[in-house]
Write a structure and sequence with these properties.
mainly alpha; Hypothetical protein af1432
Length: 204
């Protein structure tokens, strides 16, 4: 795991979008907590949790080259071909864009996807969403996002703003988790995001 952490740190050292080593370590910790209850393959789950963003299409242009790069690294660190194939399957399919509604073929993949999605909600999720929006030079909100109704502001419509991302993705994640353990962990985070949004609308 020390070699994997070093690999992830090197691969994601230039990230400023909320997908760096700190994120990978939080997903690792989430995965460990979920796996302790759900009983997947710990080696597969924790490895995939750490390296999942080293092939992310949002961060890297050539997906196939990234996959081969990761395969080579795992091979050099004594993973079997079977283990490498499963890890590659997981990291290729867990992202929101790659698998928003898709089924996954293993408990291990479901645990890693849930662990990643947990880090996209709650206080950490809010911070990461703002970081990602800033990296893409997005406004937090656009005027057309907001509607005044009966003296109170509320969300109006989706644009390319960071605020829109809450409605396109973050508020949907709780109901798209696979494991009971992750769902239990998610409820408090989901509630906090709703509280944040309520306070945001009150303040503006």
């Amino acid at each position: 795991m020390k070699n994997i952490i070093k690999f992830v740190k090197n691969e994601l050292s230039k990230d400023n979008s909320g997908h760096g080593l700190q994120h990978a370590l939080r997903v690792y910790n989430n995965a460990k907590k979920i796996n302790n209850k759900e009983k997947g393959n710990e080696k597969i789950v924790l490895t995939a949790a750490l390296i999942h963003d080293t092939v992310d299409k949002k961060l890297f242009e050539n997906f196939e080259n990234r996959i081969e790069h990761v395969k080579q690294f795992l091979c050099e660190n004594n993973y079997t071909l079977e283990e490498i194939n499963e890890i590659v399957y997981i990291i290729s399919n867990i992202s929101w864009n790659n698998g928003q509604n898709s089924d996954l073929n293993s408990l291990n993949a479901k645990i890693v996807r849930d662990a990643d999605r947990l880090d996209a909600i709650g206080a950490i999720g809010i911070i990461r969403t703002i970081e990602y929006g800033n990296s893409k030079q997005r406004n937090f909100y656009d005027d057309e996002n907001i509607l005044l109704n009966d003296g109170k502001y509320k969300f109006n419509k989706i644009t390319n703003s960071t605020l829109s991302h809450f409605y396109e993705k973050l508020l949907l994640l709780k109901d798209k988790l696979h494991t009971k353990t992750a769902l239990n962990m998610a409820q408090k985070r989901h509630d906090f995001m709703q509280l944040f949004l309520k306070e945001f609308y009150d303040e503006i």
